[in-house]
Amino acid sequence: MLRKPHIRRPISALLMIMGAAMMYLALETWAGALAFALGVLIEVVGIAVKRKE
After folding, report:
1. Mean pLDDT across the stretch 23-41?
2. Number of domains into which the chain is organized
């Protein structure tokens, strides 16, 4: 499924948008720090999916 570029690109874009939204909406508490870290992790996965050849 992820070998097809027409499927991989939208999934990658969705993951990067979701990660950015989580980082933007994170609160200034310890739970917000966890949400921010999760957002970063989701973005990294999205970038890895996009860059996979």
Report:
1. 91
2. 1
Q: Given 3-state DSSP classes, what are the helix, strand and coil percentages for the chain, each rounded to the nearest 5?
A: 80, 0, 20
DSSP assignment of 28-51 equals SSHHHHHHHHHHHHHHHHHHHHHH
Task: Note down the domain range covering 33.
Answer: 5-51
Largest CA distance in the chain: 40
Q: What is the pTM of this model?
A: 0.79
| 37 confidence band (pLDDT: 50, 70, 90) | very high
**Cβ neighbours of residue 23 under 8 Å, at least 6 residues apart?**
35, 36, 39, 40, 43
Tokens of 11: 């999934």
